Amino acid sequence: MSNKHLIITLDSVSKYYGSVRAVDNVSLSIGRGQMLVLLGSSGCGKTTALRLIAGLERPDAGEIWLDGDLVAGNGHWTPPEQRRIGMVFQDYALFPHLTSMENIAFPLHSQTAQQRRARVEDLLALVGMEGMGDRYPHQLSGGQQQRIALARALAPHPSVVLLDEPFSNLDAFRRKQVREEVRQILKAADATGIFVTHDQEEAMGITDVIAVMQAGRIMQVGDPAALYRHPELPEVADFLGEANRLHGIADGLRVETALGTLPLARAAHGSVKALVRPESILIERNDESNAIVESVRFYGYYQMLTVRLSDGTRLDARVWAHVDVSPGDPVHVRVEGNIVTFAEG
Amino acid sequence: MVIRFMQGDVPLNSAALPSFERRAPRRLSFSGLPGWILSLLLILVMLLPLAMLLVDILSPDFALWQRMWRTFLPDVLWNTLRLMIGVGVGTFAIGAFFAWLISTYSFPGRRWFEHLLLLPLAIPGFIMGFVYVTIFEYAGPVQTALRDWFGWSRGDYWFPNIASPGGLIIVLTLVLYPYVYILARAAFREQASSTLEAAQVMGLGRWRTFLRVSLPMARPQIAAGVLLAIMEAMTDYGTVSYFSYPTLSERIVVLWNTSFDISAATQLAALMVVVALVLLAVERRMRGQARYFQQGGYGRPLEPQPLRGRSAWLATTACAVLLATAFLLPVTQLIVWTVHEISSPTVNLLRQAMLDYAGNSFTLSVLAAAVIMVLAMLIAYATRAHSTGGRHRPRWMARLMTIGYAMPGAVIGAGVLTFVNPIDGAVTDFATDVLGYMQPAYLLTGTILALTYAYVVRFMAVGFNSVDASLEKVRPNMEGAARTMGAGSWRILRRIHFPLIRMGMVAGGILVFVDVMKELPITLLLRPFGMDTLALRAYFLSMEGWHESAAIPALMIVAVGLIPVYLLIRVGSRNVK
To answer: For position B572, what pLDDT does the model report?
Structure first.
């Protein structure tokens, strides 16, 4: 199971709480220096997966390998304090009775006072919190606490940093900025990162590899574009964004639908549901109209149209704000790019 | 008279638990099964005296009950009921009214009165009682002054008799209204102003808004406060006995201590256990409701409306009068008596004695506080609410520990004696039969050991709630964080847990200390022969009419009692911010 490039490997790992399968036969590999996002709705088991890697939970089945060593499973157990993993908790779990500096120095207890001080100063600079070392957690804003928690997790040079919903306590505006900072900091520290989040936009913003989890299982792993454009399961498709479903008859890399023959990204046969994202639907105003605009909802930089095809099929289409349409307008609708289909049912 | 605020009336533990907690694997070996078994064992030992009383009532002695019914029982029951109703009505009226006045209006001195109206909590009922009786009785300064001014003599004028059931109800109301006041104030504070504004928009005036919206919304909390006051009145021993007003609680002590009618005392105590359990259950229900009712209380908090002119001064005067009657007058009187007593020629003799009593009080209080805090920490830690090897502490555990606190001291005293006496009896038999030792052995009866045990049974809840609340500040993720950073169990205990629960230990210790300091019936029933405490001394001296001598220990008790009130005020003002 050992592999030089893989820093974390989960092999058929399961964790049960009574009859609830919090993590259900999960296998996952992460390479050194990679950033992976575990994406899923609340209660899907993503936090439990993170805690299993950290050693805060014991798996009921399966094996967990860290940097080539078996740390859990098959009779082995390495407690969290020996795994050399950094973790940022959702509530930050800063120690309220210690200052920022003391919080960051907490994992550095085996070093001399001088080394400790130097490392703490470095980390405060890294997270942009110079001069704030004497403040207690309650004297810091949410974003500042988050950065101290990150600095604390990075203090002992861990090769893996786990982040559990690290941005959920920040407002939408700060979130983007902090997210980018955290990415930079992790890259600068040359650390492997696993993020847990329920926010698909955030997930796509953070990283190149997303693992979508549902009901304790990993549904699909891939880069954001592939997951969004070519989901393998309808659940993944819905979780990542809105989608139209069109009835069609597929034959190889083609599908026959109410919008004509469309190219497929994956071969399929027979009666299927074709998945068409609203922004893949192009609205044109020309003589050959094949649909009527039913309603227009204006959202600022884009607007959402509902159009009705001549056969009665309704579709949602996302168009830019400048497109000037009103309910009742005849329009021409076509689909751009290749699409995926799922078995009907 | 005990201060109960650690029981959750005021949220000392403001750190609500986030919902994303997960169960964690077993951590310290002590948190596992051994800790649980030890905790359950300790709780069992604490409940044993009460359980034995309950067993006693399962086999009622009907002849005894008949005899009691023919002699004193109807009067005693009626007295107890009358007192509970009177104190309930009194504390409701004063507590709810002032809580409303202070949270709805602003007027000169409001900020001060808001906190100062809690001060009467520091005065035990029997001290308030003897001060009031001494001031207002026939030979007291008030009536003497009236006679001197108007040249009256006995029978020429009417003056209310303070040493009467009415006087007793007034005295207990004055010391117990803060319970209702605290809870009602918190309830009014949580009411969103929008709700009240809505009522006003719909055409209700302030007063009718209070009657039809604020008061009904605060009903569960106010009811809980009134119930606490009623339970205190029911369990009171010192005050009722000073007023020679026999209640159930008072009868138990008298039957046991003076008439030596042990079986009657035990049966009455068992009856009170049942009554107290019922009241406790009712109080729990109301608490639960209170929590439910608070759900709607979000939004902008109530902005006190300024009062102007006559009504402003009326409000200030009302608060000033209450503060003066319930605190300033009795405390000033105690100080005057103390000064007088200290400057009298017999003082040297007394000073030595007082030092002894103070020393006894201190020893007993420290001992009880230390034992309770150590046990409380063990139990709280071993059965932590969050996560102990996947086991969550069931709520009944904390509830079992609060039962002792709801019991009258007299009942616990009686319970411990029924538990301890047979043990001593068995030891004596053994000594006589086997060793040929012809003297009765009092290994437990009348020792500090039995006394401390009774204190633990009575006051465990105070210490436990305090430690447990502070332990809640330790979020499970903090332990997880510490572990991922390489900290082992011992380091987590030393660097995280201990610093965070230290304040809770100190606060809990202080509360137990003060409660034991003020305690009367348990000490009276179980103390080693001749070991008098300040509270007992104040009680005995006042019973015999030596009010100036009684003032010295009384004043010391009030002074110590101010410490937890101060803590309470600090917590209260922090919550506001």
So the answer is: 64
Q: Which of A15, A95, A148 is the best residue to mutate to test the B interface, defined by the most B CB atoms within 10 Å of its own CB?
A: A95
Interface contact B485-A83, CB threshold 8 A: no
CATH code at position A226? 3.40.50.300
Helix (H, G, I), strand (E, B) or coil at A14: strand
Q: Which residue's entry shows tokens 């993503």?
A: A46
Contact A47 B22 (CB under 8 A): yes
Query: What is residue B16's predicted lDDT score, i.e. its pLDDT?
Result: 31
pLDDT-based confidence at residue B17 (cuts at 50, 70, 90)? very low
Of B22, B475, B487, the CB nearest to A48: B22
Residues above pLDDT 70, as percent of chain B: 84
B318's tokens: 């009302």
Of A58, A96, A156, which is closest to B486 when you measure between CB atoms?
Answer: A156
Residues A81, A190, single domain; the answer is yes
Spatial contact of B267 and B56, defined as CB atoms under 8 Å apart: yes
- Using one digit for the tens of pLDDT, what is the confidence trace for A203-223? 888 877 999 999 999 999 999
Task: Reply yes or no on domain B5-295+304-576 having CATH 1.10.3720.10.
Answer: yes
Q: Do A234 and A257 belong to one domain?
A: no
Nearest to B123 by CA among B574, B567, B551, B569: B551
Query: Looking at the DSSP assignment, which residues form a beta bridge with residue A330?
Result: A292
pTM above 0.80, yes or no: no
CB nearest B24 (choices: A56, A82, A91): A56
For B496, which residue in chain A has the nearest alpha carbon? A95
The boundaries of the domain holding residue A246 are: 242-343
A138 in contact with B, Cβ within 8 Å: no
Q: Are the C-beta atoms of B501 and B474 separated by less than 8 Å?
A: yes
- Regarding whether A302 and A331 lie in a shared domain, the answer is yes
